[in-house]
Amino acid sequence: MQDVQLVAKNPIPPAHTESPGSAVSWGAVFAGAVIAAAVSAMLLTGGSGLGFLSMSPWSNAAPPVAALAIGSIVWLLVSQIIAYGVGGFITGRLRTKWSDALPDEVYFRDTAHGFVMWAVSVIIGLVLIGATTTSLVSGGARAGASLAGSATAVVSQGVQAGSRGGLLDYFTDALLRPTDPATTPAQRDARPEVSRILARSMINGQVLDADRAYLVKLIAQRAGVDEASAQQRLTQIQTQFSQAVAQAEQKAKDAADEARKGLALFSIWAFVALLSGAFVASFSATIGGRIRDR
User: For residue range 169-190, what is the model confidence (pLDDT) as tens digits?
Assistant: First the structure.
């Protein structure tokens, strides 16, 4: 009898039964993700319009490049915070009420809902934009290819300068080249042929002896100077041409390096923006869920 009274005073708590349904409210998650993606696209579109308005073809009217870069980064961060703040809050407000869960568990679930909403929204954004990550990687590969092939591009332009067929015309000229340039008709334009010889010398790194002898005679005949002066002129022009090609190659390398640095900086700040969006989405979902339970 005494044992029955003790049991009546201290009843055994009922065993906790797990809910058969999932704790994730996927409807709320997808609704918040779609809204976050739409708001993000809207803000980024508006930011692009403001960027185009600030640009100008006049050098004295356009803002500095550094200012545009900083403005773009700030707008990207603000866009992510606003978009995922709205999406996370809506996710928290629309999720199912967990009446049998403890407060700590409710807080964790709301945080998880915000994070899942952010992940789904990022995937939607990547699909709609067209695989932004792939574009970044391919952009880095293109910058590296531009850096590696800058010298080839410069030389190729020199090869095609003043000719129609490019390097093939050099060998055609060699077949039809007269033994003595003095016998060449005066009205014949030798500039394309000379350009091709100089271009091929840049590829080989030096002027062939046969080409040098021919050029010296041709310069002496056309310029009206002796062969010694023609030799000196050829050496001087070849040095200047080599310096011009080296400068063009250096500019191409500098441009490729600047593109690489810009791509790396944008990737880092894009990572920071996405990380900020994940935090804001999780935090906003807890706020929305708290208001939902009230």
Answer: 555 555 445 656 666 665 567 7
CA distances from 250 to 50, 145, 256, 269 (A): 34, 15, 10, 29
**How far is Cα 85 from Cα 118, in angstroms, rounded to an integer?**
10
User: What does the mean pLDDT of the chain come to?
Assistant: 75
Q: Is the pLDDT of residue 31 over 90?
A: yes
Q: What is the DSSP string of 197-257?
A: HHHHHHHHTS--HHHHHHHHHHHHHHHT--HHHHHHHHHHHHHHHHHHHHHHHHHHHHHHH
Q: Give the start-to-end residue ranges of the domains of the chain.
A: 26-132+263-293, 150-254
Measure CA 62 to chain center: 23
**What CA–CA distance (Å, rounded) separates 120 from 40?**
13
The confidence score (pLDDT) of residue 154 equals 46
| 191-204 vs 209-223: helix crossing angle, rounded to 10 | 150
Give the Cα separation of 199 and 211 in Å (integer).
12
